[in-house]
């Protein structure tokens, strides 16, 4: 069975939940990732490409002519999507949504199963589409199976669907474990003095600019390193000081080499609507790399990581400095490391995908049985004369 994913994130933007999950599905099945449409083209067409070495995964972009009226866009998108599916012999498939807005040009399709992987509360992000809550409600009503990207998001939405399951951020331990023994610093990080406090990920409205600005002033001897793209905020608004280093985006395979050179990994998220339900994938990744972590009090970090004593929680500059000083002065980390490894022992993207696959199989079987019953009942109700 094929899988068609409707995704709000460009596949090559940053490597995160969709890539981890869909690459695993593509081991034995074809996967087509439909990115958000582009409306600045000279004509209508679709573009299909292979982003990596996965033989069964393709990325598709629907291009719409820039002079197309808003009223005609969805009609044109549907026609392009139908043409793409026909050309690629896609008949039996799962629709996998990350973006509720994609329902506007996919509501005419008849999938074997509809899955909504609710990774984030997109309506809480900066400048969301005005119809996104209405579209999500429609998507939930159509979905056979719903996953959430964390426990807090699950609690907020569990009353909205009969078959909803929480799948928090997981980890590829072998990928990040190498940071514990990595010796060679990347060239653009090598000259930065210690102690180093590092973060990788998207730098957007969720980033606590004020906290970093204050910390860099209070502790000019501490170095703050940030890897990742700046989006949805003005780069000029970010603090600029000699002890703050923006090293731009890095490939997923490069992250362990940077992480290895940090003294402390940080999650400096602002506490606002856009971070209320996030479950940062980098939390277990930092820990797998053997790095102590300081995070602001994000709900899905506090529980379980903060309460288990795996991560330090700090919301103010004073709390952060106290936590960092404790970490930097700590000489015996063996007990903490053992506790981290014990906690991470049963967490992996492979196990997450295995559990998801079981739920998908069950949902497919249940839907097939319901369709068979409907067919039988319809046949019984026929009157022959």
Structure, described:
The chain is α/β, with parallel strands linked by helices and 385 residues long. It folds into two domains: 2-170 and 351-376, 3-Layer(aba) Sandwich (Rossmann fold), CATH 3.40.50; 173-344, Rossmann fold (3-Layer(aba) Sandwich), CATH 3.40.50.2000. It has helices at residues 17-25, 70-87, 132-142, 151-157, 173-177, 187-190, 209-218, 255-259, 282-288, 299-306, 317-329, 334-344, 349-380; strands at 2-6, 31-34, 38-41, 45-49, 57-65, 93-97, 113-118, 145-148, 164-166, 196-200, 223-227, 244-246, 264-267, 293-295, 312-313. Strands 1, 2, 3, 4, 5, 6, 7, 8 and 9 form a nine-stranded mixed sheet that branches. Strands 12-11-10-13-14-15 form a six-stranded parallel sheet, sandwiched between helices. Helix 1 (17-25) crosses helix 13. It is globular and about 75 Å long. 36% of the residues are buried.
Furnish the topology, listing elements before pairings.
Layout: E1 2-6, H1 17-25, E2 31-34, E3 38-41, E4 45-49, E5 57-65, H2 70-87, E6 93-97, E7 113-118, H3 132-142, E8 145-148, H4 151-157, E9 164-166, H5 173-177, H6 187-190, E10 196-200, H7 209-218, E11 223-227, E12 244-246, H8 255-259, E13 264-267, H9 282-288, E14 293-295, H10 299-306, E15 312-313, H11 317-329, H12 334-344, H13 349-380
Parallel strand pairs: 1-2, 1-6, 2-5, 3-5, 6-7, 7-8, 8-9, 10-11, 10-13, 11-12, 13-14, 14-15
Antiparallel strand pairs: 4-5
